[in-house]
Amino acid sequence: MTFAEQVIRFNKNLELDISLPKNIKVLHPFKENPQVLPIAEAFYGKFYNDNRERKMVLGINPGRLGAGSTGIPFTDPKRLSEKCGLEIDLHLHEPSSVFVYEVIDAYGSVTDFYSNVYIGSVCPLGFVIEDQKGKVKNYNYYDSASLAKKTTPFIVDSIKKQLEFGIDRQTGYCMGTGKNFAFLKKLNEEHRFFEELIPLEHPRYVMQYKAKTKSLYIDKYIKALKS
């Protein structure tokens, strides 16, 4: 099977059967939106239709505006159209996606980047929470100790399955230098996914708090991924 075929099969078979904390729901883009799977299939078929070994970068979990709408981590509909050449009838904008595609531009091109890098998530399904006013917000797997504990077996199994796609296991990369890295670092010490795990600032953090100096973080990503 090609790298693309393995990713598509993985996405199709994602299941998380656990009891969730109050007001929290699973964000499962491949089952909730019939458009998402064909979009993801087109993307991976275009950029991953080979058997190349790739470096793996792990974000947190899908959010509503990026992977939640396209099935592709850190790729919102606007970037999917403008950068990847795949049209989608949505116009959502995710700041994290903006940063990631600036990294991709600095790397060389979309084709160059995805030929060498695979972006996944520590938890490949996301979560949302509804507040008292009925507003739905993204929720991270580590925002609740109970949720983190319940999702751990799913997370471990999911990472192991993705490593079989053809991942370079010498060095792994974690988006997030705080809770996401602490969680993944502990799992890596136990399961030895990678010989070395490198933390990189999360795109959302850069865009929200470090936008004026984002070029420094783009350079950090490029240096790490091309080392």
CATH topology: Uracil-DNA Glycosylase, subunit E
CATH architecture title: 3-Layer(aba) Sandwich
Question: Helical amount among residues, as a percent range?
Answer: 40-55%
Rg over C-alpha atoms, rounded to the nearest angstrom: 16 Å
Rounded average pLDDT: 94
| Terminal CA distance | 28 Å
Helix/strand class = alpha/beta
Low-confidence stretches: none
Number of helices: 11
Strands ordered across the widest β-sheet? 3-2-6-7
| Order of SSEs | HEHHEHHHHEEEHEHEHH
Give the beta-strand count. 7
How many structural domains?
1
> Could you tell me the strand content as a percent range?
15-25%
Q: Considering the protein shown, what is the CATH homologous superfamily?
A: Uracil-DNA glycosylase-like domain
CATH level 1 name: Alpha Beta
How many strands, which pairing sense, and closed or not: the largest β-sheet? 4 strands, parallel
Globally, the shape reads globular
